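Feature request, filed as a ticket because there's no other form

It would be nice if the structure record came with a short human-readable summary line next to the tokens. Right now we just get the raw output. Example of a typical job, pasted below so the devs can see what we mean:
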Amino acid sequence: MVNFLKKYAALIWAKNHVRKAEEFKKNAESDQDKLLLSLTETAKKTLFGREHDFENIKTVKDFQERVPVSDYEDLKPYIERVKKGQANILWTDTPEYFAKTSGTTSGSKYIPISKEGMPFQVKGAQSALFHYIAKKNNADFVQGKMIFLQGSPELEEVYGIKTGRLSGIVAHHIPDYLQKSRLPSWETNIIEDWETKVDKIVEETEKENMTLISGIPPWLIMYFEKLIEKHGKKIKQIFPNLQLIVTGGVNYEPYRDKMEELLGGKVDIVQTFPASEGFFAFQDDYTKEGLLLLTNHGIFYEFIPLEEYGRVDSDQHSTKRLTLKDVELNKDYALILTTNSGLWAYSIGDVVRFIDKKPYRILVSGRTKHFTSAFGEHVIAFEVEEAMKATLEKYPAQITEFHLAPQVNPDEGLPYHEWFIEFEKVPENLNLFKNELDNQLRKRNTYYDDLISGNILQKLHITSLKKNAFHEYAKSQGKLGGQNKTPRLANDRKIADLLEIYKL
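Raw output as currently delivered:
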């Protein structure tokens, strides 16, 4: 009876939520303009606001003229002052949290999350679940156990500001109605070594009625493989009531085949787009491609056409900073954020592509720094992932992971793109597979096609890697688990050279 009531209540909440959400879908453009002016008004007395004349910002154009596009290094002097406990620097007061991220050339990033910004991190995830329930007209998963594969919820303090991984911070804000059903235990969640942690999660979950599992695809795959190895069964046999997987952080498509094989049965997938800087979008219809952009969640968005990204005009301002009303479908844009946590015209490094404007829906098509353009071709992640997907449809195989790097100085012949691929199942004819992959990439990138046609490059090469190569590589770099993902593209051979030892 309790479960029935729980399920019924979730369905009612979900349908009410979705009905209310229609309002912001209709008013996205005007909401965005109002939001920007509200943010600058709130922050006009901060150090950043005074330095950039927020007092006189009355339009989006005023803002763009006064506030240049920045990255973490540009904002770092301000963040260092905030880290020392100083208030009213980037935003009013001090942040509620710092989301600490790793992997930059200058060490860890400390992304501020304000008391105004934090609720939207949770609301974004809730909204994704509510939209799923309403679309499915089914909330059965609330009756079982849920697992959130995440970083440690243990937080340190930096001058009184709680600091840790975003997923660990969010763990402290999961609503009570979900906490009761949630796994793993606190003791397991705080284990730092990722392999040890996954082993423990397997122990804690293998006999439970798991109905929802959340995490980024590489984590999920590792968890599922350990379960299958232990039980000799597919995931749907181990968890017959598993209904929903919520994932985000990377494009799901390249992992879909591998996931489906491990699952061994039908499970719904909902994709999300969270980051330390904010919760941006989620799949509002799990049956269709595209993520609904959240335009009323404390974040003002700008978009720079990818081909213009990094260019500046005579006044040192970025060219072509577009707002929602200016964007075109099926074009790639660098995503620029202004947030209610004090990030101003901040380049997050993600590239998005709009596939719908009614409402605004996006795909995450790559990273501004993850591309291959050693020969001027500027190939981005979306193109290689789509090329791979089309190739696999024609010549079936199964891929665990891949990395593309330029080979500028080969021992013989013309330069080429080298694809390092870890196959789970090798295609019947690797040569046909390779030629198809090359053709598919040529279809998607005219510059690459010109380079092949003009005999500047030879066709791509495939280097097959041993099983678990990417896992071992990540481990060797201290980047196993966490939010760490091996880039699929590089403009140099730093990763490629380290992958050489795993060649078959």
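Something like this underneath would help us a lot:
The chain has 18 helices and 20 strands.
The first helix runs from residue 2 to 26.
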